[in-house]
């Protein structure tokens, strides 16, 4: 859409499992970082310590002295601090007028650091695992940001609550802006949804606790006990994989469940085209971690596949029970099994839900409109660096 854009990545290249489009973009448009660039980052850190000593000291104390809730986030934010010194140099060298982080954790720390050193406004997105459970640094990031983008309405009030500890809370609450994801949802890829036994059930996602796949497997056992013929394709990978495969065996449904492993974005349409029902049994785990609105739900709806999902976070914004799919309580295999059985019992009704869901996601996640929403926010909150490239060269 013509936005002059550069992309900086806090980490090195990771070419595995990328789509051709992502590989091409990563090679041509993304500046990657990592330990092999350590000398550059050290030079940049020393540069800013000399040029902005007071700001440098405040940033170091504020980040290194902050506990971020768990060791992984601690490392992310400390590395984000380190990267921020380099990004501040980039901002001046490249004439950047706005810095945006796609996540609220370490990348947002990088953006905050670069902004504080250069005067360039920054913003960050708040999505799912990056804000649930919350980290203590979120209030400070909200205070310093020009705006915070949330991609589901559920997170608006949640992020606004961090303003309560700040001076002028209403001003900071007003910074939270809703901008739904801009998804590539191609028309014309409608799934046949044969809805004949054995019914084809599909779930796709990372094998992590927030997805609730153990409850899906338990629901499948209940379906088997009721005589419902089905086959579940549970596609994805992650640390929970071995436990899920073991559970399928213990439940006696190993023959009814396939684990194809990680699938690329290009194969999603292939899987959707064979599905009768897409299931997303998301849950809030013990730590407070949860999904926002999993993109794969919208992908299923765009293929006109009926959806059964649990009522977590922003999922109900797209899965409206009895209108665009079935919505059930989290962590309840009995209601999940009931909803799946109800969906496969009437192809005509399930098809109506799926068509409604398709039209809703085309409306909410329109690519051009939602991208324009972000562009307007960037334009409204832009500003040139307060230090010129000539001053930097002289220093």
From TrEMBL:
Domain Glycosyl transferase family, which positions?
198-359
Database matches in Gene3D superfamilies: Glycogen Phosphorylase B
Task: Tell me which UniProt keywords the record has, alphabetically.
Answer: Transferase
- Record's InterPro entries? Glyco_trans_1 (IPR001296)
Taken from the record, one Pfam family name reads Glycos_transf_1
Q: Output one GO MF annotation.
A: glycosyltransferase activity
Q: What is this protein called in UniProt?
A: Colanic acid biosynthesis glycosyltransferase WcaL
Organism for this UniProt entry: Oceanidesulfovibrio indonesiensis
Taxonomic lineage = Bacteria, Pseudomonadati, Thermodesulfobacteriota, Desulfovibrionia, Desulfovibrionales
